[in-house]
Amino acid sequence: MINHYFFLRQVAVDLQKAMVGSLLTAVVSPHKDELQLFFQQEEEPSMLRLNWETDQFLVKHQNTDVRLPRAYEKQLFEGWNRKVI
């Protein structure tokens, strides 16, 4: 089981290191059960993918080969270009 305190504490520390100080550049939802948040930190883009289409909640943080799909130019809300604190 990955949703226990010690695992989530370590994930939170890792995500904080990777995301604090970056800019939220886009938020899209390619599927009804998925949310993708795109970040830019210095010259390195990254993506946080949240997926809950199965009975488990899945989180994936990706630093390599991150591109916003052309089909999703219309974004979900006016939160982009804000700094993550």
Which characteristics define this entry?
alpha+beta; globular; 85 residues; 1 helix
What does this 3D model show about the protein?
The structure is a single chain. This protein has 85 residues and is α+β, with helices and mostly antiparallel strands. The protein is built from one helix and five strands; from the N terminus they run H-E-E-E-E-E. The longest helix is centred in the N-terminal third of the chain and has 15 residues, at 5-19. The chain is globular.
Structural class per helix/strand content?
alpha+beta
Q: What is the N-to-C order of secondary-structure elements (H for helix, E for strand)?
A: HEEEEE
Helix content: 10-25%
Number of strands: 5
Arrangement of strands in the largest sheet? 4-3-2-1-5
- Report the total helices: 1
- Proportion of residues in β-strands: 25-35%
Mean pLDDT value: 78
The span between the termini is 29 Å
Shape: globular
Compose a concise summary of this entry:
The chain is of the alpha+beta class and 85 residues long.
Write the layout of secondary structure elements.
Layout: H1 5-19, E1 23-28, E2 34-41, E3 44-51, E4 58-62, E5 82-83
Antiparallel strand pairs: 1-2, 1-5, 2-3, 3-4
